[in-house]
Predict the 3D structure of the following.
Amino acid sequence: MSSKGNDQGVDQGKGRVPIRQLPTGVPGLDEILGGGLPEYSLNIIAGAPGCGKTTLAHQIMFATATPERPALYFTVLGEPAIKMLRYQQQFAFFDHATMDASIRFINLSHVVLEQDLGAVLDAIMKEIEASKASIVVVDSFRTVVRKALNSTSEMELQGFVQRLALHLTSWQATTFLIGEYVEGELRDNPVFTVADGLFWLYQSVERNSIVRKMQVMKLRGQDSVPGMHTFRITDAGLQTFPRTFGLVGESGHVKGQRRLSTGVSELDALMGGGIPEGDSLLLAGPSGSGKSTLGTQFIAEGLRQGEPGIVAVFEEIPAEYAQRAAMFGFDFDTPQKDGTLKIIYLRPLDLSVDETVNEIVNSVKKIGCKRLVIDSLVGFEMALAPGFRTDFRESLYRMIAALTRLGVTIVTTVEVAEEFTSMNLSNFTVSFLADDILRLRYVSINGQLRKMLLVVKMRRSQHSIDMVGYQITSEGMVLGRPLRGYRGLTTGIPGPWSFNSEEIPPLQSDADVDDQNG
Amino acid sequence: MRELSRRLLIASETASDRSVHEAAVMSEKLRIPLTRFAGAEGFASLLRRALVLASVEVPSLQSIKVGLDGRLEGFEELAADPGAAAEGSEAAVAITSHLLGLLGTFIGEPLTLRLVREAWPDTSLDEYH
């Protein structure tokens, strides 16, 4: 077995032929394909100009080509080979040793221009037989077909495609036919009928952002992951972000086997002992109410107990976040150096949720993360390309589900616009995503804008129903006593509980909080 | 690329017909692998550019043309001129070095050398690796 291939987990006891899968060399793509590229398959890479077809083909070719399994790249009236190689060698996957030993480029333009389809087929097969190629790329195959359509019937074209597929398969070649197709061409096109795999690449402009997506429309012989998968092209080549986030199969984690302290013992008590491990907690509150501070305390407490943590920030850079933690007495620099804390700052404005989660999931696996803070959902949404914002709720659902499968306990902050007539849980109607919800809000009492919190929801567990005053001090969040004797606290403008009472009950003062906390 | 071109010229002279101009011999050797790689028009286009650049150094090359098939044409007239004939080696080196230089600019030295090796399979180019 080659070092660049693996046998699919096929039960040979049932007599099924094993299909070897070739690693594509494109991060995330093997998972999307259901394990890798089926050997000897004939595949089409389709899409509009500039969407990454040629780069994808090169990346796969460099990942799969070996001296024993050489590759042939036929260029046909598309991008000139000289220019194509000039640009392709800028990618990190372009390896001169592989190129030298295992890859050949052949220009077929003159055959396509001057001769018929039979001659094109002969030329392709002659080169393949001479070079013993096992990986074959024709770029662009669409050009071959377009030229043929001017001079041959549809039946002749279908015959050519079928003969080509037959010969390539007989020769045990894994083939990629690249074409600038549009989706309307899917119907009645013999190329798509014959192909074993059909990979469609999309690139769209959404306001000021470019969004790239890929769909495996067809793949014979194995289960691919359906739907649109976002991808990015960087100096390293293509990187895909599977909708499954790399998490398939059983989770193996049972939620709530123990409680995690938030770092605020009084708050833990309100929640019935802390946050159940593996839960997703939504921390909702207005600007300045202390959401980020509590998130920081949650991470700091985890570090104190030897639990690695990750903070995903969208509104400030990691150094600023660590500096703010230091103001509360937490050292976030040392654990970052030790590898027990990672503060992820995600590049704003053109992210996809899948890309974000991919980054987080990789980091979770890398450092064995137990606690994750996403600060904040508003910043996260703003960092996304506009097109992804419309699917934000659905994306969050997939993200939370994926992350909690890893056994990570997640605290997500969400800013809510404060109203003094009612109390919202969030602007995103995402509370269904959370196992637990903690609401922070301002209340106007005795001419002061005070802070109060309440535990709205703790799935599977008892919790306090008290509304409790709190302050943000130099040591972080400090809870006071339950606010008793008021009506309408949730509106933010409470009055006395008893209508007979002429005076508002005395409110716990800052001094009370200080006394209470020693 | 000039030193490499001289080396290739020496390798070509030992095996070629002395009645054919050195530049024609060398471009013909490169024509086959380069046409396979870049197509006939791609090769002809590069050769035309190399010829223009080489003509600045070897003025007698101004009368040479590149045919549609990518072959250099017009050496018969050049042979009648004793001065131009004396520039044969220099002209061959100039055209070849500019052609390889163009390739190096576009696809880099490693890929260029690979194509050169295909054209001169019996010539050792280890020191250029």
